[in-house]
Task: structure prediction
Amino acid sequence: MTASFLYGAARTPFGRFGGALAGVRPDDLAATALGGLLDHHPGLDRDAVGDVLWGCANQAGEDNRNVGRMAVLLAGLPVTTPATTINRLCGSSLDAAMMASRTVETGDATVVVAGGVESMTRAPWVMPKPEKAFPAGNVTAVSTTLGWRLVNSRMPAEWTVSLGEANEQLRDRFGIARERQDEFALRSHRLAAAAWEDGFYDGLVVPVPGTVLTRDESIRATGTLEKLAALAPSFRPDGTITAGNASPLNDGAAAVLIGSESAAATIGSEPVARIAGRGAAALEPQLFGFAPVRAAELALERAGIGWSDVGAVELNEAFAVQSLACVDAWKIDPAIVNAKGGAIAIGHPLGASGARILATLAKRLTGSGERWGVAAICIGVGQALAVVLENVRTTPALGGSGA
Result:
């Protein structure tokens, strides 16, 4: 078994639902991230890419029929480049990166691209096919943008509550006040805005042809606690979760380049970080937001380190309440979590988020000089994934400032 390393990353800016990227097909978004990543490595012969592993959560519209393979073809890679599409909902692209690392470690390939895409704007409405022609009753079209749809009646009702209600239940369980959630959300926006101003994301983000978006569209640099406090609860009349302290709906794509240590000569650059540990965990579906706790602990165990060794954490902010619950459970310094902003500000295009947090973590490590970092993401229907990275460079990488 050989080791696997992250060599580089690229992503599109993340657009708002119905925003600047609404007119772009998901397969084109995927091709943009994939092509942008390879453009960052001009010395890499594209024939050397042994596989492309791509994440996507919905796959009900233009992202159907193996959108990973479509991205390969649209990005101009050789037609001999294989690709597959992976669906672990919000964790799809982190799952793709984990699978890519295993592919390298087993020797099945020396260079692999992993990533993911989601256009939540363009996710279609669907309806079940009738059991017989000309049904007499009404048929309801169901949005595939987010959450449960066409639910099996055998599923217990407590498992199939909305994502928001599930996180209100986490709030009940852990007693996390609305004020803490709003403060966490405001921090996410301020840190993301500052990171963009400092140039942190410049080398990671590639433009989408035909659009004018150059930065993540959901960031509100001028937000205040007063504005957040004025928002009405979204899921319960007396609830605490609002549109301001939860991640928005977004469009975007992200990709990472993973290879063996010996692949440096092929890629034309030195590796950035070693993939040192992986973890997958599951629990009751309605508690999905808390699942990263165990996933990260497993990844740390497999890396042979503990939380005291970790200098940087990227935790996907599906909701402020679940993020706070995880940070509290880990008993870590909140300052090391999402220091460049998180999904509440940057956005959460489901299939792309895992690759985004992994890339951000790698760049944070190379900029700060910290040795160890954790990327973790909660996943609907009660799952989570986590990856431990070990910094193998001390000079800034992936472009721009890495502090």
